[in-house]
Amino acid sequence: MWPAMGWMAATLFALAGFRNSAPGSPPIGCLLDGTAFLQAEAIVAFGGYVVVRGTPVELAPSSDEA
């Protein structure tokens, strides 16, 4: 769990650096933002949300264990 959360946090902040290294350094609001960058940011942020919300469920003792 912790490696996944660390990876998602690092990716969330690294995506801005990847965007700034695009050829020509495109301005905010260009087609690159709408089609790739903002969607990638949303997917990574949602993945972090899923990990945080799913952790208590995965760590809870199962009623099947006897």
What is the topological layout?
Blueprint: H1 2-20, H2 31-59
Q: Could you write a compact summary of the structure shown?
A:
The protein is 73% helix and 0% strand. With 66 residues, it is mainly α.
Tell me what the structure shows.
The protein is mainly alpha-helical. The chain has one domain (2-55). The protein has two helices and no strands. It has helices at residues 2-20, 31-59. The two termini are 25 Å apart. The model has no long low-confidence stretch (mean pLDDT 75). Residues 1-16 form the signal peptide. InterPro entries: DUF4436. Keywords: Signal.
Question: Uncertain spans, ≥5 residues at pLDDT below 50?
Answer: none
Which H/E pattern describes the elements? HH
The major β-sheet equals: none
Q: What helical percentage do the residues reach? A: over 70%
Number of domains: 1
Count of alpha/pi helices: 2
Radius of gyration: 17 Å
Tell me the number of strands. 0
Shape: elongated
Strand content: under 5%
Task: Determine the N-to-C terminus distance.
Answer: 25 Å
**Overall pLDDT, averaged?**
75
Structural category is: mainly alpha
Pick out its properties:
mainly alpha; 66 residues
